[in-house]
Amino acid sequence: MQKEMENTDVSFDIVPKFNDKNYKQYDKFAEILRKDFGAEITSNVANGRVYNTFTLSGNLTDIYTQMQNIRDLAKDMGLDDSYINAISEQTAKTKSTLDGYQEFFNQGILQDKIINKNI
User: Fold this and answer.
1) 10 burial type by CB count under 10 A (0-12 exposed, 13-18 middle, 19+ buried)
2) How far apart are CA 90 and CA 104, in angstroms?
3) How far apart are CA 36 and CA 86, in angstroms?
């Protein structure tokens, strides 16, 4: 479980709107995610629609913080609500996963301390 918290990937998909007046903002946003957040970006096509998958790797706690910052960045840049919703949804999932792992992790540490104290 500790391994899952320390070395994991979190991905979210965004369908770029090529006819959106803010498309240049989307390009800038994607570049910031790549450069400043270390996101891996892959382009995909499904059902005739192009979308980008953004993947963050590392410690789950750090990824959750990055997701919050990415969501705020998208809002600050005035990106389309559909982008923000996709990011917010994945942020909530990441938080839920983190909370679950954190609870088990803390129980494991507590049990280790109790066992080591009684040895």
Assistant:
1) buried
2) 21
3) 20
- One digit per residue, the tens of pLDDT, for the chain of length 119 reads 555 567 889 999 988 876 666 678 888 999 999 999 999 999 999 888 889 999 999 988 999 999 999 999 999 988 888 888 889 999 999 999 888 877 776 776 666 667 666 65
Rounded to whole angstroms, how far apart are CA atoms 26 and 7? 28
Q: Tokens 């983190």, residue?
A: 98
HEC secondary structure over 48-108: CEEEEEEEEEECHHHHHHHHHHHHHHHHHCCCCHHHHHHHHHHHHHHHHHHHHHHHHHHHH
Closest CA to 64 of 85, 39, 88, 95: 95
C-beta separation of 74 from 92 below 8 A:
no
